[in-house]
């Protein structure tokens, strides 16, 4: 199990702050994110003070588009690479796989993907940079950050090609309680419990990816479905969607919310690398 963080200045980061970093490394499963320059600087500064950082155990970092690399083992001991390690993934390969998942773009229908993408990147330069990587347009090839996509893909890069999300939990009853309260409020008002409502934000792209993944897992456990996407919301009939959710909420409250979460958290841990779509839970 490891956490991979990549500093690519031509890809929107999923881990923008040190708080985001803390969220992600709490997960007991493989993760991969683009990190901001702020996070990269934090890690580099920490390395100046100490070469063993227990809180960063099982983490791998690629800085400046793949110019510098450091890996922390299971005890937090760092190893600096002089050559490109096998676990490095190019910006283009990452953009077309895990980056789409991290930013909730992987399961959007084409018109919704386009509109969401345009909203995310109002700046034309940023939009061009992302399109260049997503569609391998090879624009201004000599000035792109990172390494170009090799014709001989590495095995790990191919394994990351799936856009399915795996089960996730944050190990925090407080965060689960907040999620449950928002779910109950939406269901009682016959409003679709979208990821936006469940995380209490209008801009899903700004929500830490670890939190979004956990919210999807928790919702799947309760309702046996994924949170409604734009296609389902567009189809209407929120009353029909919310009725069974309200019934499940009542059962959970009768069972005891904290008791329910303890068993759910264990079930998620036991599920390992299972995809959210395949995950089921009964206390």
Helix content: 40-55%
- Category by helix and strand content: alpha/beta
Radius of gyration: 20 Å
**Strand count:** 5
Q: Biggest β-sheet, characterized?
A: 5 strands, mixed
**Contiguous helical run count:** 13
- Rounded to the nearest angstrom, the distance between the terminal CA atoms is 27 Å
Mean pLDDT: 86
- The percentage of residues in β strands lies in 5-15%
SSE sequence, one letter per element: EHEHEEEHHHHHHHHHHH
What form results from the Cα inertia axes? globular
Strand order across the biggest sheet?
Answer: 2-1-3-4-5
Report the uncertain regions: 142-162
Set out the fold topology:
Layout: E1 3-6, H1 18-25, E2 31-34, H2 37-49, E3 59-63, E4 68-72, E5 78-81, H3 91-95, H4 98-102, H5 110-120, H6 124-134, H7 155-159, H8 173-188, H9 195-199, H10 209-223, H11 230-235, H12 238-255, H13 257-271
Parallel strand pairs: 1-2, 1-3
Antiparallel strand pairs: 3-4, 4-5
Features:
283 residues, alpha/beta, 5-stranded mixed sheet, 13 helices, 5 strands
């Amino acid at each position: 199990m490891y956490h991979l963080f990549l500093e690519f200045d031509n890809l929107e980061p999923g881990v923008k702050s040190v708080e985001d970093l803390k969220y992600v490394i709490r997960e007991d499963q493989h993760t991969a994110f683009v990190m901001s320059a702020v996070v990269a600087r934090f890690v580099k500064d920490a390395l100046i003070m100490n070469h063993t950082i227990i809180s960063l155990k099982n983490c791998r970092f690629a800085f400046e588009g793949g110019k510098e690399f450091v890996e922390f083992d299971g005890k937090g001991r760092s190893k600096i690479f002089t050559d490109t390690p096998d676990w490095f993934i190019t910006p283009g390969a990452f953009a077309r796989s895990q980056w789409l998942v991290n930013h909730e773009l992987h399961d959007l229908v084409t018109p919704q993907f386009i509109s969401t993408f345009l909203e995310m990147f109002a700046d034309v330069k940023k939009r061009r940079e992302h399109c260049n990587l997503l569609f391998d347009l090879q624009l201004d090839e000599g000035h792109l950050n990172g390494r170009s996509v090799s014709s001989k893909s590495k095995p790990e890069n191919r394994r990351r090609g799936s856009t399915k999300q795996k089960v996730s939990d944050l190990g925090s009853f407080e965060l689960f309680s907040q999620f449950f309260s928002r779910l109950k409020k939406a269901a009682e008002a016959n409003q679709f419990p979208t990821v936006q409502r469940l995380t209490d934000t209008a801009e899903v792209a700004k929500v830490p990816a670890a939190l979004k993944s956990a919210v999807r897992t928790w919702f799947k456990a309760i309702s046996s479905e994924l949170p409604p996407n734009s296609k389902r919301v567009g189809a209407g009939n929120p009353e029909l969607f919310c009725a069974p959710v309200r019934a499940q909420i009542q059962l959970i409250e009768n069972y005891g919310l904290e008791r329910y979460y303890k068993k759910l958290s264990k079930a998620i841990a036991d599920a390992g690398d299972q995809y959210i779509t395949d995950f089921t839970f009964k206390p």
